[in-house]
TrEMBL record:
Main location: cytoplasm
TM ranges: none
Organism: Micromonospora inyonensis
Gene name linked to the record: proS
Pfam families found in the cross-reference section: HGTP_anticodon, tRNA-synt_2b
GO molecular function, one term: ATP binding
Name of the protein in question: Proline--tRNA ligase
Protein family membership: Belongs to the class-II aminoacyl-tRNA synthetase family. ProS type 3 subfamily.
Length: 471
């Protein structure tokens, strides 16, 4: 396999690009910074979408769709917002062969356009909370693109809500953070995430508080996998999102926004991938079991027929299964492709094993190969899927713990960030120290309380800062 992928230890970025290409997950688009997501990659994204969408709906939000084009004037209504996004904007000045009366922005995010319509739709406190989500593409002109991690156009969900009180808005932003995002990442993607508060320097443009979920990648760097924002009344005042209170007064609403994107695919690759390719957690995998005919025998009752029966039995047991009976293609090549794409379990059916009443169960997580009686394959597969979901999470958590250092000073934190994460008292860093760390390519990924919970403000006493290099 070393001839297929560059070893991670040798060149991690090259390994990442090799894996995406060789596993046929994505390709570079024709315009710099864009990407084409191939069927194998998109199938994983669809599973992420389905799992995330269900959790968002469980939290009470409804899906809607808003325009791709946003009047430039909308962004200018919230000064911090437009300042934060100006370097990344794609602006359309001509349409239909004529110069537009007002330039329009290709959406980098939708707080402004959704705020405009929230103002139309909200009149009374009875209209609140208004809980919206949209699945869409966004454009942020990227100077240093990398497939899935940073592209000029990417796919995501963005939630936007309006509430009657600040406490309601905060509670909902945190509900999404934990019940939708953290639950998905931990229990489906098998990625241990550090959930915390962003510093003012790292906060979303226009927000009053930004909560983040940070994952450690295979090379020890951090990746922001999702964010949830309290927007205070900033956008409500800019777009006149007001409501009649129960007491009869006119009040500004409190709003939130929150999003996750195809960046999660990049995180999945870099967190779980190995030198043989991708490893997809069983709960997420579009194909959980790949049944392969090694070589067909003569007449009925051979490997091909046995493999079809096993596939049917696995499907009946609720397993997502694919059958590979392409015996005209060398088995070794097919096995390599299956490893690259990270199918959690392979069931190999060949004449020799079948003659002994067995099939071979191959587990992607640990590479083990075990002969299993054909009659026991379904039970063995179900047990392997459950065990390997947990094993991937445990391995990722052990990796994070082994490369996280407890330090006391900013200098020690910057040093530790060369190979992993640093946990350091926020009081030892502060605003000035954060700027110093940034100058050396290290960022404060998040702040948390000593007990690991998420703080309300960076001004709380005894906070811990996580410092790292990041994608």
């Amino acid at each position: 396999m070393a001839r297929v992928l560059t070893p991670r230890a040798e060149d991690f970025p090259r390994w990442y690009q090799d894996l995406i290409a060789k596993a046929k997950l994505a390709d570079n688009g024709p315009v710099r910074g864009t990407m084409v997501i191939r069927p194998a990659g998109y199938a994983i994204w669809e599973r992420m979408q389905a799992e995330m969408d269900a959790r968002i709906k469980d939290a009470g939000a409804e899906n809607a769709y808003f325009p791709l084009f946003i009047p430039e004037s909308y962004l200018k209504r919230e000064a911090e917002h437009v300042e934060g996004f100006s370097p990344e904007l794609a602006v359309v000045t001509h349409g239909g062969g004529k110069q537009l009366a007002e330039p329009v922005v290709v959406r980098p995010t939708s707080e402004t356009v959704i705020g405009e319509f929230m103002a139309k739709w909200v009149d009374s406190y009875r209209d609140l909370p208004l809980l919206l989500n949209q699945w869409a593409n966004v454009v942020r002109w990227e100077l240093r693109p990398r497939i899935f991690l940073r592209t000029s156009e990417f796919l995501w969900q963005e939630g936007h809500t309006a509430h009657a009180t600040r406490s309601d808005a905060r509670a909902y932003a945190r509900r999404i953070l934990h019940e939708a995002y953290e639950d998905l990442m931990v229990n489906v993607l098998a990625i241990p995430v550090q959930v915390g508060l962003k510093t003012a320097r790292e906060r979303f443009a226009g927000a009053t508080a930004t909560y983040t979920l940070e994952g450690m990648m295979g090379d020890g760097k951090a990746l922001q996998l999702g964010t949830s924002h309290e927007l205070g009344q900033n956008f409500a005042k800019a777009f006149d999102i007001t409501y009649s209170s129960a007491e009869g007064g006119r009040e500004h609403a409190w709003t939130t926004s929150w999003g996750t994107s195809t960046r999660m695919l990049g995180g999945l690759i870099m967190c779980h991938g190995d030198d043989n390719g991708l490893r997809v957690p069983p709960k997420l995998a579009p194909i959980q079991v790949y049944v392969m005919v090694v070589k067909d025998g003569e007449g009925p009752g051979g490997p091909a027929e046995a493999a079809r029966k096993l596939s049917d039995a696995l499907r009946d047991a609720g397993v997502r299964v694919a059958l590979d009976d392409r015996t005209d293609t060398p088995f070794g090549r097919r096995a390599v492709d299956a490893e690259l794409r990270g199918y959690p379990v392979r069931v190999e059916v060949g004449p020799r094993d079948l003659a002994a009443g067995n099939a071979v169960l191959v587990r992607r997580t640990d590479g083990s190969k075990t002969p299993v009686p054909v009659a026991d394959v379904v039970d063995a597969v179900l047990a392997a899927l459950t065990a390997d979901q947990r094993a991937l999470y445990d391995q990722a958590l052990a990796h994070r713990e082994s490369r996280t250092r407890e330090v006391a000073t900013l200098a020690e934190a910057i040093e530790a960030a060369a190979t992993g994460w640093a946990r350091v008292p926020w009081s030892a860093v502060g605003v000035a120290g954060e700027a110093e760390a940034n100058a050396q390519g290290v960022t404060v990924r998040c702040l948390l309380r000593a007990d690991g919970s998420v703080p309300d403000s960076e001004d709380e006493a005894d906070l811990v800062a996580i410092l790292a290099r990041a994608y």
